[in-house]
Amino acid sequence: MPIDWIWGLIGGLLIGTGGAVYLLGNGKIMGASGIIGGLVDGSGRSTAWERIVFLAGVALTPILLMPFYGKVDTHITDNMLVLAIAGLLVGVGTRFANGCTSGHGVCGMSRLSIRGFVATACYILAGGVGVILFRHVLGVI
Amino acid sequence: MLRHLIALIAGSLFGAGLFISGMTDTAKVQGWLDVFGAWDPTLAFVMGGAMIPMALAWIVRNRRTTALTGAPLPPPASKQIDSKLILGSLLFGVGWGLAGLCPGPSIASLSYGGAGLYVFVAAMLTGMILAPALRARLDKPVPAE
């Protein structure tokens, strides 16, 4: 669809604005895996309530926007084993790397962090090889 | 109070951005990663768009000593590239490609992702709980023969 990239750009600007508000408002880096992970193991500088309120905002705005969109298709696979393995890899991997697409990708690369660039290159490479392997070779996704 | 209001605003902007950009649609993420399939460039526009306000915010950060709430600003970025960063990012990337979901969008689609999404989130939380113990095992020096 030709207008997808425009919505991508608008959505991206909103994501970046959220990160800017969090950085200049609360002095924190907006990394989703760090915010979620810190709630699980108590690591990091934020309090539990700050994390919960942030995540509530993330989870609730799509509900408010939904009436303008109608049915939203997530295309999430029905294969629960694939989802469970993927979730474990995402959970372990983001905690090892101390960041994900928002922390290393958006917040890290925008400050020209070498860790941000290395992490992003690694997860895009692994994701690309993974999708090609799982989709075109093994046919599991 | 102000700190929580700011967290709510930031989280809402993040959630709205993920939803509007289509990043909660796993087909878009897998479409970006699948260079041999019907390649979908949307994610590049999302990343690029997000980088603009963030880069400006980092410039403002360099001219300030504290955040709006008086909280300390993040220290300069670490330059340390270690095996944990690389191994973790590779593991994360495989999971990201497999499901088409990363942590932010998994939370943003909590209300409409269905049973599959709950399985993913539960597994992700389990992985996050297990990570410190797994990391400790990796860090343990290999005993000499």
UniProtKB/TrEMBL annotation, chain A:
It comes from the Bacteria. The keyword Metal-binding does not apply. It is found in: Cell inner membrane. InterPro entries: Sulf_transp_TsuA/YedE. The keyword Transmembrane helix applies. The chain crosses the membrane at residues 6-25, 52-70, 76-97, 117-138. Keywords: Cell inner membrane, Cell membrane, Membrane, Transmembrane, Transmembrane helix, Transport. One of its GO terms (cellular component) is plasma membrane. This is YeeE/YedE family protein.
From TrEMBL, chain B:
It holds the Pfam family DUF6691. InterPro entries: DUF6691. The chain crosses the membrane at residues 42-60, 81-99, 111-131. The keyword Transmembrane applies. Keywords: Membrane, Transmembrane, Transmembrane helix. This is YeeE/YedE family protein. It comes from Sagittula stellata (strain ATCC 700073 / DSM 11524 / E-37). The lineage of its organism: Bacteria, Pseudomonadati, Pseudomonadota, Alphaproteobacteria, Rhodobacterales.
